[in-house]
C-alpha cells in the first residue's frame, strides 16, 4: 500500500492533552493541508509522525511497514522543521552533495535560485534562501512522504510560488502533509484540509467550517474567499 497511515496518536505535555486519538492518512500523489491555531499541536503531530517526538500512544505505518523509531522512518519520511536544520559551516554545494544521491544533485545545482548560492556557507544565507534550499533538498530526497512545517514562513512571493511549483511537480512521486499559517496557500495546494482543534483532527469539507471551528473570523473569510473586503 502506497500510503502513510497514522492512528491512535495520543500526546500530553505536563498533564495537558495536546493530541487525542489522532487518525490521518496520506497517499502518494496527495497533498494534505494541516491547519490549526497557534499552539494547537501541529508541529508536535508532525514530529511524532517523523519519529523525533515521543507519544503516549502511536501507530505509524508507511507502505505496509510499521515505524517504531526514527531509524525506521528516516528513509521513508522526511520532515522540514520550523527551525533551520542544515549544518551552518558547510558550503551550499557541499550540502547538496552530502544530502542528495548523485542522480538528484544536478537538478538542484543548476536551479536558478540555488546556483548563485553554491559557494556560500549555510549560515551566511538569508532566511528565505535558507528555507528554499532546505525545502528543495527535501523535495529532491528519496523519501516517499514529506512533512512540511511552515514552508512559506519568511519567504517572498516569488519564492513562495517556486515552493508551490516544486511541491506540485513532485506530487506524483510523493505524499505531502503541509502546515502553515499562510492558510490561503495551504488551501490552494491541498487536496484535503484537516483542522487540529481541541486535540482532535477535523476534516474540512467546506471552507465555511473554518469559521464554525473558530479558525477564521467571518470578516477574514469574506475578505479572502468572497472578495467582499
Ligand atoms: N517540549 C515541550 N514541553 C512542553 N510543552 C510543549 C513542548 N512542545 C510544545 N509544547 C506545547 O504543546 C502545545 C502544542 O505546540 P506545537 O508547537 O505543536 O503547536 P503548533 O500548532 O505547531 O503551534 P504554532 O502554529 O504556534 O507553531 C503548545 O501549547 C506548546 O506550548
UniProtKB/TrEMBL annotation:
Domain spans labelled ABC transporter: 4-223
The keyword ATP-binding appears for this protein: yes
Protein origin, superkingdom: Bacteria
Protein name: ATP-binding cassette domain-containing protein
Keywords (A to Z) from UniProt: ATP-binding, Nucleotide-binding
Listed PROSITE patterns: ABC_TRANSPORTER_2
MF annotations from Gene Ontology: ATP binding
SMART domains: AAA (SM00382)
InterPro entries linked to this entry: AAA+_ATPase, ABC_transporter-like_ATP-bd, P-loop_NTPase
The organism of origin for this protein: Gillisia lutea
Amino acid at each position: 500500500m502506497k500510503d502513510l497511515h497514522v492512528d491512535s496518536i495520543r500526546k500530553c505535555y505536563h498533564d495537558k492533552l495536546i493530541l487525542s486519538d489522532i487518525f490521518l492518512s496520506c497517499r502518494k500523489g496527495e497533498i494534505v493541508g494541516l491547519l490549526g491555531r497557534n499552539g494547537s499541536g501541529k508541529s508536535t503531530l508532525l514530529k511524532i509522525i517523523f519519529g523525533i517526538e515521543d507519544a503516549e500512544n502511536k501507530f505509524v505505518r508507511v507502505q505496509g511497514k510499521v515505524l517504531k523509531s526514527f531509524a525506521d522512518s528516516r528513509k521513508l519520511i522526511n520532515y522540514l522543521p520550523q527551525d533551520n536544520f542544515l549544518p551552518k559551516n558547510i558550503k551550499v554545494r557541499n550540502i547538496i552533495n552530502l544530502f542528495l544521491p548523485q542522480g538528484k544533485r544536478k537538478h538542484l545545482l543548476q536551479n536558478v535560485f540555488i546556483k548563485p548560492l553554491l559557494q556560500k556557507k549555510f549560515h551566511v544565507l538569508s532566511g528565505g534562501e535558507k528555507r528554499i534550499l532546505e525545502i528543495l533538498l527535501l523535495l529532491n530526497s528519496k523519501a516517499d512522504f514529506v512533512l512540511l512545517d511552515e514552508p512559506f514562513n519568511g519567504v517572498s512571493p516569488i519564492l513562495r510560488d517556486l515552493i508551490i511549483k516544486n511541491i506540485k511537480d513532485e506530487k506524483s512521486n510523493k505524499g505531502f502533509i503541509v502546515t502553515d499559517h499562510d492558510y490561503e496557500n495551504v488551501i490552494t495546494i491541498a487536496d484535503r484540509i484537516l483542522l487540529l482543534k481541541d486535540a482532535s483532527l477535523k476534516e474540512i469539507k467546506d471552507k465555511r467550517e473554518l469559521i464554525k471551528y473558530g479558525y477564521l473570523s467571518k470578516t477574514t473569510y469574506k475578505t479572502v474567499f468572497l472578495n467582499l473586503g
